[in-house]
From TrEMBL, chain A:
Organism lineage string: Bacteria, Thermotogati, Deinococcota, Deinococci, Deinococcales
Cellular component annotations (GO), alphabetically ordered: ATP-binding cassette (ABC) transporter complex
UniProt family annotation: Belongs to the ABC-3 integral membrane protein family.
Region (Disordered): 278-313
PANTHER family according to UniProt: ABC-TRANSPORTER METAL-BINDING PROTEIN (PTHR30477), IRON TRANSPORT SYSTEM MEMBRANE PROTEIN HI_0360-RELATED (PTHR30477:SF13)
Protein name in UniProt: Manganese ABC transporter, inner membrane permease protein SitD
Species: Deinococcus marmoris
Principal location class: membrane
Lineage top rank: taxon: Bacteria
The UniProt record lists the keyword Transmembrane helix: yes
UniProtKB/TrEMBL annotation, chain B:
Protein name: Manganese ABC transporter, ATP-binding protein SitB
Signal peptide range in chain numbering: none
Annotated source species: Deinococcus marmoris
The entry's keywords: ATP-binding, Nucleotide-binding, Transport
Region described as Disordered: spans on this chain: 238-258
Domain ABC transporter: start-end pairs: 4-239
Amino acid sequence: MNLEALLAPLQYDFMTRALLVSALVGTVCAVLSCYVILKGWSLMGDAVSHAVLPGVVISYLLGLPFVIGAFFFGLLTVSAIGFIQSRSRVKEDTVIGVVFTALFALGLVMISKISSEVHLSHILFGDVLGIGDSELWQTVIAGTIALIVTLLLRKDLLLYVFDPTHARSIGLNTGVLNYVLLTMLALTIVTALQTVGVILVVAMLITPGATAYLLTDKFSKMMWIAVACGIGSAIIGTYGSYFLDGATGACIVLVQSIFFLLAFIFAPKHGQLARRRQQMAERADELGEGGPPAAPRPVLTRVRTSSKGQASD
Amino acid sequence: MMALDVHDVSVAYGGGRLAMRQASLKVRGGSVCGLVGMNGAGKSTLFKTVMGFIPPLRGTVQVFEQPVIRAQKAGLIAYVPQSEDVDWNFPVSVREVVMMGRQGKMNWLRRPSAIDETMVEESLERVGMSAFAERQIGELSGGQRKRAFLARALAQDGRLLLLDEPFGGVDVGTSEAIISLMGELRREGRAMLVSTHDLGTLETFCDEVALIADRTVLLYGPTGEVLTADNLAATFGGRSPLHAPPPKQPAQQMEARP
């Protein structure tokens, strides 16, 4: 394939727009993914992304920007989950499952009932190539807000995720931080809807962070690596989908999965190969082949005492 | 001045059942108070109450004669978690953890000042962890992990330190180092509330002991006066683990440690 063919997609306006939007979405999602995977909120991300469906439909009915309805339903989901969990014996993952499937089903029923103009497949799987001016602006604004708020509060959010008790003990308002993080999660999901759709949003929200987590032990580096993965996969995926003539969102997610797989195998310290090497080296040391001789064992002896009452424990 | 004054406090989590019933406890500045009781007796509830996680339904909690929230904003309360409560795979270094002790005192952008840097260095030095400052926390031994979090409390410059099981899973050397550090902190006028399972060492570092059982403070006071066989028996539901008489049959020994 020559250079001309490679650059061919760029002469289309819709391709350059798609590339820019998906790169922005990749960035925002990647930043948030670092917090999501460390906090253990992957399922929560999946839940919120599915549960925004009725919000999108209602926005369409009322003629509002889809971002507003989706964001509102995102917050509703988070609150409903928190409310039910604090007031019942059911475990959190179960509550999350119950709430999001309920809202997702509601959204499906609404779509099947009301209109053929809301294209179900575009909401479910995204349609970044067909993004209109209004959706473009909504995505950019929501994404920028999520990015700025998260970055400004990144240290407090990190402390909250790592050790909420300490955060509380130095006077940070952990209740507010919890809701800020959840709100940013909802806002980020809304941002990514147009690009990858309801079903695959969660991949954008966890895979870059998970990949970066395998590659470094420093949070600041983790964030940069995640962002690089996010932007890289967005561009390669969007570009690739042009040549494959395949679903753009799915292509982006697939590239991210490949990044993760590579990190899982080849990461310098936490990858499979490195772990295997480390294990073998440790074993060789312990077995005394080439390594320093093992320290001599202390010699313990049994002592028989005559008085029974003095038996040591 | 009283570092901690818990007065007649009752708290509940969600349900109707109280998690703490009319508990009272005072800890003076410059003293160490040991918190002793069975698992589930209410030690962690007491910690959570002192840190303002659960608002009292009745009674008051004051830290250096201020309400908990004000004391927290002033950075007076430092918390050292149990090892089980920490995610050791978290991508932070020892230095970053210690710096978290300073975070409440930084400006809104949370950029460390020269004073913050100095405090972190000094705290690392004091617990002997300077050489390990750049390590990821999961690469530390059990004793080093404790020291890292103690350094965070030092960096915070808290006046009331809450230590949750500081001797859990550490070797004798670390245990002694922690006790001597607690001695230094006491001489600086700081107060410490220490929950522990290790009854044997209580007398070596506690000025006072509080006995916790059945969701309340049964008794608190000077260590020697409180740690009697009868009191411990009442706290541990049967017989004192510290004063256990030589068992006649092994089966009875099992009974004595429920």
